[in-house]
Amino acid sequence: MSAESNSKYEERLTSLGIRPTAIRIMVLRAISEDPDGIISIADLASRIGSLDTSTIFRTLSLFSEHHLVHEVDDGSGTQKYCVCHCADLDHHHGHIHLTCTRCHKTVCLRDVPIPAVPLPSGFLAEESEYIVKGLCQSCCDVIR
Q1: Which ranges of 1-144 would DSSP assign to H, the alpha helix?
Q2: Is the pLDDT of residue 107 over 90?
Q3: For residue 136, which of 89, 91, 111, 99 has the smallest C-alpha distance?
Q4: Degrees (nearest 5) of the Cα angle 38, 43, 110?
Q5: Is residue 112 helix, strand or coil?
Q6: How does residue 53 score in pLDDT terms, banded at 50, 70 and 90?
Q7: What is the C-alpha to C-alpha distance for residues 105 and 25, in angstroms, rounded to an integer?
């Protein structure tokens, strides 16, 4: 990886108060470049190859604390992570995820915000998840 290609990741980390180490840049780069926009620790470990899962977990936990990534519980039994693309830090207004109930692939719909939900007086939302479960195109093709 060139220093120039890492600069955007370094800048993103620095802007959130995270020291941009080589490991943190590697993890941010791998999760940012995932075609589905969402990835598990095991998938990150196999993609990166040189890091163990505990190092990746600690890095993602730090990223989550700084609202760089958010955790997605898609019902597959494996925690997944997605880079936050929120213009502001109002993190309880995230985006929708699609999860295939057959192959357990999850995809981010970054441009589709979670619809506003009227909350009872006195309830303060801290975060929300919106997961649509069904069959992806590949699994639909297999069963037809």
Answers
A1: 3-15, 22-32, 41-48, 53-65, 137-143
A2: no
A3: 99
A4: 5
A5: strand
A6: very high
A7: 25
> What is the reported pLDDT for 87?
44
Distances from the Cα of 104 to the Cαs of 14, 15, 18, 134, 139, in angstroms?
Answer: 34, 33, 32, 10, 10
Task: Read off the pLDDT band of 26 (50, 70, 90).
Answer: very high
Q: Does the reported pTM lie above 0.85?
A: no
Q: Which residues pair with 38 in a beta bridge?
A: 82
Distance CA(98)–CA(103), nearest Å, equals: 12
- pLDDT (tens digit, 9 = 90+) per residue, 89-106? 444 457 788 888 898 888
Cβ atoms of 48 and 27 within 8 Å: the answer is: yes
Rounded to whole angstroms, how far apart are CA atoms 78 and 39? Answer: 10
DSSP conformation class of 51: S
Closest CA to 74 of 103, 92, 50, 98: 98
Give the pLDDT score at 110: 77
CA distances from 64 to 4, 9, 18, 48, 140 (A): 25, 16, 11, 19, 34
Average pLDDT over residues 72-101: 74
